[in-house]
Amino acid sequence: MIYRHPLAYLLGLEGVALFRAFAGEYDREFIGARIAEIRTLLDSAERLGDRTEVPEITSVEGYDNRSVDYDERDNSLINLEQPIVHEILDRLPIGVALNAGCGTGRHAAYLASLGHTVIGVDSSPGMSAKARAKVPAGEFHEADLHRLPIPDNQVDLVVCGLALTHVPELAPVISESVRVLRPGGHLVTSESPGLAFGGIGNPLVKIGPDGNPGVRQQPAASDQ
User: Fold this and answer.
1) What would the pLDDT profile of 56-70 be if each residue is shown by its tens digit?
2) CA 224 to CA 220: how far, in whole Å?
3) What is the DSSP string of the chain?
4) Integer distance in angstroms from the first to the last C-alpha of the chain?
């Protein structure tokens, strides 16, 4: 269970601002204003509401529920990332491409449009089903990125977009990608760090398998 309190969250934000001021980013007036706000928050604690406890859910559970309307949601991070990845893919030779952590198949579909033979891997059955619908000629697997169901030296290209933030240890996942790549192959990754406030894991609220909200705890910086 994740314990959350609105006052603790707001005081944490004030603390981050004060740490930045301590590093020289802000002046005396800014620091005074933050301290005054902290006093006001402490005096207003009861009006901010009570604490809550939220259960942890897995990334598979979270993304299975999101798969229903994932493509219909506007995602500013994807809007920023996707054109950059496409520009890179446009310059690479055509071959067998693995989309690791394929989600609903946005990169898999683009790879297929370029002429690649596409393999997709995702741990979420709901997301994988969406990807299969987009790329009927593709080969899709429900599997973990730590154990790719693909033989050694099998693909020319591995694309992993915005999936590594859910991985507690990067080295085994990158090693798996290297294992399945043929000599001279390419590995293309894109990632949001998934971290906030100087390396603290940022828990994301998702809808759990029972329909109730839960928290997907992001790996801390020390785990990556």
Assistant:
1) 777 888 888 888 898
2) 7
3) -EEE-HHHHHHHHHHHHHHHHHTTSS-HHHHHHHHHHHHHHHHTGGGG---EEE-B--HHHHHHHHTTTGGGS--HHHHHHHHHHHHHHHTSPPSEEEEET-TTTHHHHHHHHHT-EEEEEES-HHHHHHHHHH-TTSEEEE--TTS-SS-TT-EEEEEEES-GGG-S-HHHHHHHHHHHEEEEEEEEEE----EETTTEE--EEEE-TTSSEEEEPPPPGGG-
4) 23
Which tokens hold the place of 151?
A: 């033989």
Q: For residue 200, give both structure tokens.
A: 């603290």
Do 196 and 217 meet the contact criterion of CB atoms below 8 Å apart?
no
Residue identified by tokens 């005054």 is 36
Question: Please, what sign has the CA dihedral across residues 16, 18, 19, 24?
Answer: positive
- Per residue in 107-132, pLDDT (tens digit) is 999 999 999 999 999 999 999 999 99
